[in-house]
Design a protein that fits this description.
The protein is an alpha/beta fold and 410 residues long. It is built from 20 helices and 12 strands. Helix 12 links the parallel strand 8 and strand 9.
Amino acid sequence: MADASQNQDSKKQLRLFLVAGEHSGDALGGKLIAALKQRYDGTLTLAGVGGEDMAHEGFASLFPIEDVAVMGPMSILPRLPRIMRRVYQTVDAALAFKPDAVVIIDSPEFTHPIAKRIRKRAPDIPIIDYVSPSVWAWRPGRAKRMRRYIDHVLALLPFEPDAHARLGGPACTYVGHPLIEKLDAIEGADGAALSRRLGLAPEKPVLLVLPGSRTSEVTRLIDVFGDAVARVSAQQPIEVVIPAVRHVRDLIVAKTANWAQRPHIVDAASADKYAAMRLARAALAASGTVTLELALAQTPSVVAYRVDKLIANLRFLLKVPSVVLANLVLGKNVYPEYLQEACTAEALSAAILPLLGDTPERRAQLEALAGTPGKLRLASSSPSIAAADTVLAVVSAQPGAGKSRRGGPI
């Protein structure tokens, strides 16, 4: 009986190597670990690279995630030698760990070189990619190339499995966008309480301004956003609220100090952000995940973006009718978007003004936005649970399932 008990216990072990390359991936990784603990009834042993959210779940990172948490070619190039050292270090650690699977989380500039090298040196280890690169938007040939080193993709957007199937990419499962887990917080946010606390004039509509969460985004957008706000306020008295993340707050404060319409700056990491979205009559936002948050909050919006000249010259490679995530999820261009040279104060203010009144433009947006939760919601579980279940299913479906990489039972 003792031997049988020991044998049973030995079948309850799972070794996963997780790699997150920036803070948004770390947030996904933290929730994934929590869900894996909930769904796997044996011993879960983890290793790899992560940040604070994963550390809160008991995960020990090989090195600080800040060493590799950079975005875009212009940011990566100066730090490329350090990043490549970390790539090789991570690959060696993964092979030494002998995992039952590797899960790379977003940040393809960092995680995909790791996946390729692991596949080359240990082709029997399953590799799962949590967050699909935007192969549906540009460089679609990446999807087919991913099949060489990715076994399964966990998609955050509902149209991505069809995109991978159409482009010849790896097997892909829609596990749900993590924002849907915040729907109750978004819908229950108390805009009226925030208005009272900020001392906003109740007769003035609130314009929410969201210039981005990265220094480069704020630097490119804040001045033109300020000019647009000035044009709007000259025609319509408004209150302006800006949610700011900690690392760009000082920049936003400095850049808005001379605005004729002084904004109220709140903490984007607190409940104030969603309260501001619910309070706002309209929003002016940088393109990004925040557009999905605005759509879930049912906030009429105008979206804008500017990138550096190198990336701008590659716009001809785009394969989608919109770069706005909310528009792509809804399947129609609900939020008007103004990119690069089209991102002017005149154009932005002209698009914002109708949203502040009771107009056909405002009503059309509200009608379309009502379908956002249904587009993102999963039928029977949360995104984190769906992701964990898919990871476990991929591992169990491997030909070697039941035998660990160490040669013993799992």
